[in-house]
Amino acid sequence: MSRRGDAPDEVSDVVVVGGGASGLSLARHLAEDPSTTVTLVEPPDGPRRPPERTWCYWDEGTGDLDEAVAASWSRLRIHGADGERITVDPSPLRYRMLRSTAFERLVHSRLDGSPGARVLRATADTVRDTAGGAEVRCTAPDGRTLTLRARHVFDSRPLPALPPARTQLLQHFRGWFVRTDTDRFDPGVADLMDFRVPQPRHGLAFGYVLPLAPDRALVEYTEFSRTPLTTAAYEAALEHYSRKTLELGAFTVETAEQGVIPMTDARFPRRAGNAVFRIGTAGGATRPATGYTFAAVQRQSRAVAAALHDGRAVVPRPHGRRALAMDAVLLRALDTGRIDGPAFFTGLFRRVPPERLLRFLDGGTSPREEWGIGLRTPIGPMLRTAVEVPFLPRRTHPAPHLEESRR
Questions:
Q1: Average of pLDDT values for 199-206?
Q2: Which InterPro entries has this protein been placed in (predicted)?
Q3: Among 9, 32, 114, 242, which has the highest number of CB atoms less than 10 A from its own CB?
């Protein structure tokens, strides 16, 4: 059984650093192999431990995460800046939401059932290669220094700075979990993008509503732009969206969450040493043009676990080269203002079959399907940008305080 908080043995096969979506996901898949010993290092309770977060993804049928899913939706809705409402059914896909505490509880229960797995609550200070493997030096809650040695270490902690990029935008947001005095939401429909909010001078903004009950929902204000807002500015935007656009009437804010996600065409090295690897957002799992991460993390985690089972230590690309190339063009087109962001995304949902569009956003479409989707975008500005992007220099941008993606 795992012994949370106990000092570990000197050596494990694998140490996973970080208890976010990517660290938990990889530890869960590794624990399915009883021949592998794995130690998951999570921050102890206190300021270093992140607050509860929301993660969303789309999937079909049922899966092994269902017990952690807080809600799901079979229909998705987009609101254009002009008020046009587009409701789509991406069947067989469903949009699913889970909360980080429920996912952590699920993973911990799986690790508890694996004889070679354990969870250690400690602060990871340094990760480095050693002869024949790697080591992680940690500080326990009582101040003791612990040294964990392993054949392989997978580090999911945020990078101190993003790699050089041609284009870097940020997806930054604040959300309220609200309860209204009367029924105001349709629990069967999730609003992915509501462009009926005032648009910033640079980038784009939208509302995001995930109904949990007729009188409860997660209501978010999100921007794609170069710099985050102050908390006061997010609060003002949410107040305006909730009262003026959604017309919620009287409501109570029960909890709030806030974050910043990189949208960048930077190249994220997935290897930090001979035996040290980066996973999650630090390893490039965040889809540059959308901010979605959770589904890519699941694919990457399964692939890493399968490779280790076969005796290979690799972290595959979270996204294919074609997807990254298309994202680089879209990011540049948005950043330069050559395309109108609200009109672009609204047009995609209006013109592309919804199941195909979601597979495209997840990197699961064929070249033929992608060509067809490309013909439904502003061809002139996109072609001009596609010609320009390969010749742009990569440069270092100011480092934001990043969160693990909510998606």
A1: 94
A2: FAD/NAD-bd_sf
A3: 242
How many Cα atoms occupy the beta-carbon half-sphere of 112 within 13 Å? 7
Q: pLDDT over 70 for what percent of the chain?
A: 95
Using CA atoms, how far apart are residues 322 and 288, in angstroms rounded to an integer?
12
SS (H, E, C) the chain: CCCCCCCCCCEEEEEEECCCHHHHHHHHHHCCCCCCCEEEEECCCCCCCCCCCEEEEEEECCCCCHHHEEEEECEEEEECCCCCEEEECCCCEEEEEEEHHHHHHHHHHHHHCCCCEEEEECEEEEEEEECCEEEEEEECCCCCEEEEEEEEEEECCCCCCCCCECCEEEEEEEEEEEEECCCCCCCCEEEEEECCCCCCCCCEEEEEEEEEECCEEEEEEEEEECCCCCHHHHHHHHHHHHHHHCCCCCEEEEEEEEEEEEEECCCCCCECCCCEEECHHHHCCCCCCCCCCHHHHHHHHHHHHHHHHCCCCCCCCCCCHHHHHHHHHHHHHHHHCCCCHHHHHHHHHHHCCHHHHHHHHCCCCCHHHHHHHHCCCCHHHHHHHHHHHHHCCCECCCCCCCCCCCC
CA–CA distance, 280 with 270 (Å, rounded to integer):
9
Distance of CA 140 to the CA centre of its chain: 28
Rounded distance, CA 123 to CA 146, Å? 10
CA distance 333 to 159: 26
- Does 7 score more than 80 pLDDT? no
CA distance 179 to 71: 16
Number of Cβ within a 10 Å radius of residue 284: 26
d(CA 302, CA 195) in angstroms, rounded, equals 36
The amino acid at residue 253 is: V
The residue type found at 299 is R
What confidence tens digit (pLDDT) does each residue in 65-80 have?
999 999 999 999 999 9
> What is the Cα 229 distance to its own chain's centre?
20
Q: Is the pLDDT of residue 405 over 70?
A: no
pTM (predicted TM-score)? 0.92
Sole residue written with tokens 């540059």: 288
| Radius of gyration for the alpha carbons in the chain, expressed in angstroms and rounded | 21
Question: Hey, what are 323's tokens?
Answer: 């997807």
